[in-house]
Design brief:
Oligomer: single chain
Helix content: over 70%
Largest sheet: none
Shape: globular
Distance between the termini: 49 Å
């Protein structure tokens, strides 16, 4: 091996490393656009069954079916948004009428009741605030900056929403657009396998995201019934938030349950802890746990297992692994990514025994 060959190898390796770094830098710079494309792809996958239904059953043309699907999506999102507007307005009105001294007395009484009931030392909230230095968050000088940040963020949200809807329209209108765009990265001899894998991934994930919507709807109805029975203020909005939290596997229900219990407590400030608040919290907690058991043992196996054709144990392990690697974001994307990996492995690595075993249901 002469010096010219060695030098060429070194230069080639450096060029590859520089190219990879430039690609990573480029992807980092356009991460917002990639996020828009991701959201648009999810919307297109969720809306695909409706588009097909409108085209095949109701004989709509393609463009009209896509437009109607997007309008329904916008209407659903707007309805959810306006569900919270009266609640926020109501809470603002209540806050304006609140007597700070009365709230302080109610919290102090609740603190004393809890301490007496559980036979523990009374918590000193003022000292806790001092220790955690929470007063730094009330710096009045930060208000103008917060307003500017809000306005800038609001503008970015509007641009993002328009971009997502625009991309979603074309992804729904031309179902082959995304795979045709990605086909440029496939070798000529692998194009058939690539298209077959992408079509299967699209079908499975479409069913999965529709299943998620069904799961959230079922939980929303059950949570609403539970909270209305026990008279929790703003039960519909709280139920919706708790149901959406369930999109985060394992961790989400804990957050949702904590929120429900906190709001149930604040709804009953001023009442006796032992005879009113504690029994109500106990019943709500029991009801919440029963709903979670229904979700874990009925909803999720049926929805996840049938939609992505994976064993519940596979899904559980995939969620744990992705969560350990990427945190909460990994928990959310674990099932779609694992499904895509399985389909790709089936198409390109089917000669391996472990791949055959894991993908036999696909």
């Amino acid at each position: 091996m002469n010096s010219k060959t060695i030098a060429y190898g070194i230069l080639r390796a450096i060029a590859i490393i520089v190219g990879i770094l430039l690609l990573v830098w480029f992807l980092y710079k356009i991460q917002a656009i990639l996020l828009y494309i991701t959201f648009a792809a999810v919307i297109s996958l969720m809306g695909r069954p409706l588009v097909l239904f409108l085209k095949k059953k109701l004989k709509f043309n393609n463009s009209l079916a896509v437009i109607l699907t997007l309008l329904i999506t916008i209407a659903l999102c707007t309805s959810i948004f306006f569900l919270f507007v009266p609640i926020i307005s109501e809470q603002g009105q209540l806050i304006s009428e609140i007597s700070i001294n009365q709230v302080g007395d109610d919290l102090d009484r609740l603190n004393q009741d809890i301490s007496d009931y559980f036979n523990v030392d009374k918590l000193n909230f003022l000292e806790l605030i001092k220790q955690t230095d929470l007063m730094q968050f009330f710096d009045l000088k930060a208000i103008p900056n917060a307003i500017n940040s809000f306005l800038n963020g609001f503008g970015a949200i509007l641009i993002g929403l328009f971009s997502i809807l625009f991309i979603s329209f074309f992804l729904l209108k031309d179902s082959q657009l995304l795979e045709t765009s990605l086909l440029v990265f496939a070798k000529k001899e692998n194009e058939t396998k690539f298209m077959r894998a992408f079509t299967k991934i699209k079908n499975l994930l479409s069913r999965y995201f529709v299943g998620l919507l069904l799961q959230v709807l079922i939980l929303f109805v059950l949570y609403t019934i539970l909270l209305l029975i026990f008279g929790v203020h703003n039960a519909i909005a709280v139920a919706l938030i708790a149901a959406i939290f369930n999109l985060i596997p394992y961790v989400g229900p804990l957050f949702g349950g904590t929120l429900v219990l906190i709001l149930a407590t604040t709804s009953n400030l001023g009442l006796d802890f032992q005879t009113v608040i504690l029994p109500k919290l106990t019943y709500i907690l029991i009801g919440y746990i029963l709903i979670q058991l229904i979700d874990n043992f009925l909803n999720q196996p049926l929805i996840f297992g049938n939609s992505v054709k994976s064993h519940p144990l596979e899904i559980f392990l995939a969620i744990l692994i992705f969560g350990a690697l990427f945190g909460i974001g990994g928990l959310i994307v674990a099932v779609p990514f694992y499904t895509a990996i399985k389909v790709i492995a089936k198409e390109f690595l089917s000669e391996y025994k472990i791949v055959k075993q894991l993908t036999k249901e696909l």
